[in-house]
Design a protein that fits this description.
Elements lengths: L1 E13 L2 E3 L5 E5 H7 L6 E6 L5 E9 L6 E4 L11 E11 H4 L5 E3 L10
Length: 116
């Protein structure tokens, strides 16, 4: 049996930009992507701590070291610059492997969106 589990999580980063006139997605600083084991094009869930919104989209690489967290396209209407969000990626795995799997979870500084 396969189960879906949390694979990666960027816990509490701030939205730095919201670009409505874009095809869609979330742009994430490449340093945060690497640290959390999230790859470009990966499907992620965005949870907005400020307003309770939840949405799914895919990831685009942002400039490394920039702290960029930008909601693009229609997702830009679901958050405001400064909102604090959680970014979660899930993966499927065998139930026995899932029992011992440890996800990549990072806790960046919410003010700068950078790792300590």
């Amino acid at each position: 049996m396969q189960v879906q589990v949390v694979k990666s999580k960027i816990h509490r980063v701030s939205i730095t930009e919201a670009e409505l006139n874009y095809i869609g997605s979330i742009t994430i600083d490449e340093d945060l992507m690497d640290a959390s084991n999230i790859i470009e094009g990966e499907r992620v869930q965005i949870v907005n701590s400020n307003n309770g919104e939840r949405l799914e989209t895919y990831v685009i690489k942002g400039q490394r070291g920039s702290g960029t967290i930008c909601l693009n396209g229609p997702a830009a209407r679901r958050a405001q610059v400064g909102d604090v969000i959680i970014i979660i990626a899930y993966g499927f795995m065998d139930i026995e492997a899932a029992k011992t799997f440890k996800p990549s979870i990072i806790f960046p500084d919410t003010e700068t969106n950078r790792l300590a």
